[in-house]
Amino acid sequence: MTEPTRRFVLIAGSANLDFVVRASHVPAPGETVLGRELHTFPGGKGANQAIACARAGGAATRMLLALGEDAYAEPIERSLRDAGVELLIRRSREHATGTAFICVSDEGENAITVAPGANATLRGEDLPELNEVSHLLLQLESPLDAVEAWARRARAAGVRVVLNAAPAQALPASLLDCVDLLIVNEGELAAITGIADDCDAALARVGVANVVVTLGARGCRARIDGEYLQQPAFTVQALDTTAAGDTFCGTLVAALAAGTAFADALRRACAASALACTRLGAQTSVPAHNEVQALLHTADARAVVGGACAQTPSGQNAMI
Fold it and tell me: Does the reported pTM lie above 0.85?
């Protein structure tokens, strides 16, 4: 009997309704800031990454998520289905749909507080069959024991396991042992390794074969099977950085699932992330495939092999 074709990317993780308010700046501890308009957007790291993966093209996308039986669930479901994501929903009667409260500054920076709600009810046994799945993309807005169970099961099934280790926290070696590709930002990399001032030393310390660290306005850097790649950012005027990192993750995995070379996949992910920074909201900011293609054809920001982590340049660049 032949092995089933592995044609799906499966995202298992969080889905929230985001409440977004714009203000002159993100409040410091103890400070009250008078904001302006308030909008709601579908969000959550898992759902954002599923939208990005689906819109990137090249791989069919499924998502395992948990929602409450409330009005907040409906716009989340609609957004995912409209993007072409096949949904595997665990419905909770006891917990509300997850929510996030986001303040976005006039410079495009943000501060986010999440109330997990139904997201916290996901369990290891909720993962569906993996026969047609090539890549499993995970984050850390779901219970850690569930994330590790999913990764372990996927590794045993021959599925490529991708972990976006966000929000930042220390991770057990037993989880990292099941990961094929780790995606982090600088703060998350420091939380995992204890190294905060030398990204190459931190990349070398991570016990995962393939690691990508996003560097905000400096683009991203990767260690792939011992080789280092540097991808500069695409210059944009940032409006809102919410979901830029999620856009990067979903686009990168979609490209890899389609067989794209890693350097080219990094460039595509950085381009999509840059475009996401130019729009307000989470899933509403994720660009379509043709928009990314247009930027790739007009911009000059190609990956280079070797080098070292660059210093932050001046100018308005993508924040990922």
Answer: yes
